[in-house]
């Protein structure tokens, strides 16, 4: 049986924008976060407190967090790779911090400049400090369905990192398909394996849509009882350390899927489509959301587009 309710973690303001070459103004970022929260997204990943040399687009994280309105009940998350990032996130009144590791050694080195084991050691004091400060802690596992450098990633490697993240006290753990190579069959197998070692209602699916499989992977995850999914409005994004990978699955496409299944999300699709249009214009790129483009065309011209 599929879940009756799903939580969507909107990652557009962080994962979506982090790879944009042209700097997106703080005002646009703040506006984006506010609009998303107002559209009913209960969890918005809003900033990264990482090295600005590594990801220049996220350098204004503190200003973004200072500028946003705090909608009661909404969780505003930020990425924190180390204690320095955590201190900045705490200062910025972040509700949830994200420690981000990988199931692939090669990707761990490229993304955070250390081995998987070293990353866990680095996350230990971060998770501890976050818990002491009363913050939620989320652990993200990149390359859970494949790696741009090493190719296949064994399921045992994913399970191993889930266990280590669990030991750090993570409230939620993301199974991330960084380069969008996962298929529904592999996704089902990975989700089934990780839910044996961590509560399935605290696991989430983070699917990039490079190969167009993300919606199918979400459906496969729903069948495994997964209730949390990440998505990016207008399908924004890509990872600076995974060349060729496209953005996350578009939030509009996920909401359309879930609405069709009668699964509650609390997200207003009409508002979301307008937000997709707003951010696509702001960065000067067409929306990658099929649903967003179709609904916008229907609204503006009264017809569905022939594509
Ligand atoms: P490093 O070079 O090994 O560390 O980087 P370092 O301690 O030697 O620091 C290097 C410089 O960064 C120093 O500055 C530090 O002060 C500074 P310098 O002395 O050269 O002027 N620094 C910082 N500045 C601001 N905030 C900080 C911070 N820490 C150090 N917190 C480090 C290690 C982890 C810092 C670096 O590798 C890094 O920032 N990586 C971030 C990479 C990243 O953000 N990637 C994208 C997000 S992950 C993702 O998108 C995947 C996900 O979506 C899931 C999926 O799809 O797979 C989550
Ligand atoms: Mg990602």
Automatic annotation (TrEMBL):
Database matches in Gene3D superfamilies: Aldolase class I (3.20.20.70)
Keyword Lyase annotated: yes
UniProt domain Pyruvate carboxyltransferase: residue ranges: 6-273
Catalytic activity: (3S)-3-hydroxy-3-methylglutaryl-CoA = acetoacetate + acetyl-CoA
E.C. number: 4.1.3.4
Domain of life (superkingdom): Bacteria
Pathway in which the depicted protein is active: Metabolic intermediate metabolism; (S)-3-hydroxy-3-methylglutaryl-CoA degradation; acetoacetate from (S)-3-hydroxy-3-methylglutaryl-CoA: step 1/1
Family membership noted in the UniProt record: Belongs to the HMG-CoA lyase family.
NCBIfam families in the record: PRK05692.1
Name this protein carries in UniProt: hydroxymethylglutaryl-CoA lyase
